[in-house]
Amino acid sequence: MSLRILTENIDIPELTSFEVYRKLGGYRSVEKSLKTMSPSGVMEEVKKSTLRGRGGAGFPTGMKWSFLARGIGKPHYLICNADESEPGTFKDRYLMERNPHLLIDGMITSAFALEANTAYIYVRGELFRVLRILEKAIGEAYANGFLGKNILGSGYSLDIFCHPGAGAYICGEETALIESVEGKRGNPRIKPPFPAIAGLWDCPTVVNNVETLASVPWIINNGGEEYAKIGVWKSTGTKLMSACGHISKPGVYEVKMGLPVEEFIYSEEYCGGIRKGNKLKAVIAGGSSVPILPADLILKTAAGEPRLITYESLSEGGFETGTMLGSGGFIVMDNTTCIVKNLWNFTRFYRHESCGQCSPCREGTGWMEKVLYGIENGEGKMPDIDLLEDVAKNIEGHTICPLGDAAAWPVRSAIRHFRSEFEEHVKLKKCPF
Ligand SMILES: Cc1cc2nc3c(=O)[nH]c(=O)nc-3n(C[C@H](O)[C@H](O)[C@H](O)COP(=O)(O)O)c2cc1C
Ligand code: SF4
User: Whose CA is nearest to atom 20 of ligand 1?
Assistant: First the structure.
């Protein structure tokens, strides 16, 4: 059985109750940090762990915390990003539904390190059940003295509020999320200034993903150095992978960083291989926003090394032959999949979710969607393939927030690795699948 940091007790009934979570050793990190450590001591442990943010970008968490503007006479805020709207990604929901106290445990410890007395959980609008579970757990934490004024007599006080979104993918982008918490339309802000300097209500703010914050209790209980021993290179600890698509066993799996992708796909412990004995065609490894890779390049790098579940190995070869770990949304496609149709579907999503502030994203996503629709439905011409690539290139790097890149990368990578499939659609004047 592989190491489990986040999902150790996840199958125990009633883990969502304070009593059961506490009996299993929960909230020890809050006791340890508030009673025996200083805020900077907690931050140092997280730095030592080299934990990287699990929301997609993989930015080192301790370093992000150290950027927080302290001592400028403004309150600090911690926001937990529980928006999770990336297609193919459903690991945060799993964690919050089954172990909400782990997140609250991590948030109290992290807010203490950040000297924040108010924290928010921005929950994806559709997740009504998660919201109810979180609110119940927060209520229990207050009732047992782990939230509110003077927690455990330490002198430290913290309030946590849940803020449901209204169902917009863009509100997962941290500055759009901040706008939304402020009660405005979720339009991303131009950075800099970064939230650590001027975030919520212009105050120093840290935004972290659910899985990131839920990793903090283990780090404080066991020490940052112990956490850093797990995994390889600068990919330490474990990663929650939400696996879906044409595999025998879709689900959420906690893997040790460094697990070979091949083992993840084919072993019975994880995905259990490709459904119905079909052949693996392609994988999108980190949620719909990262480049798609064909079977040979997801199993091995261009240099022939086994591809591992780490930030480094998955991006080996850059975008020519590699991809990104992203949020860990692992979408597997077998040989029955039409890449063009799949891409059209994702592009339609990005067009719908674009906030419309930047012309390349607003116009480009709609344009790509139309061209892809034409190719898929037998109306495409050969120059459309280059046109598609050209539009994607003109979006990439020319927008306020990374949603534009997220829409462009899948298009560029699909053409790079599956151009012949686009051409076949055009030649046949219909979808060959
Ligand atoms: C369009 C878009 C959507 C995003 N959605 C999420 C999300 O649902 N959850 C998340 O944690 N991060 C999301 N992010 C990344 C956040 O902006 C931010 O980097 C992250 O919450 C930081 O947390 P971390 O450092 O713990 O990874 C999104 C980014 C973009 C551009
Ligand atoms: S890239 Fe797209 S989603 Fe992001 S700010 Fe610009 S228009 Fe809005």
Answer: 55
Residue range 97-127, pLDDT digits in tens: 999 999 999 999 999 999 999 999 999 999 9
The architecture that CATH gives domain 18-229 is: 3-Layer(aba) Sandwich (3.40)
CATH number of 234-334: 3.10.20.600
Q: Residue 129 C-alpha to ligand 2 middle, in angstroms?
A: 29
Nearest-atom number in ligand 1 for the CA of 83 is 8
Is residue 323 within 8 A of residue 413, CB to CB? The reply is yes
Strand runs (DSSP E) across 135-266, as ranges? 159-164, 205-209, 231-232, 235-236, 238-245, 251-256
Give the number of whichever ligand sits closest to the CA of residue 175: 1
Ligand nearest to the Cα of 239, by number: 1
Give the residue from 166, 91, 85 showing the smallest Cα distance to 125.
166
Residues of the chain with pLDDT under 70: 1
| CATH fold of the domain at 339-428 | de novo design (two linked rop proteins) (1.20.1440)
CA-closest residue to ligand 1 atom 5: 172
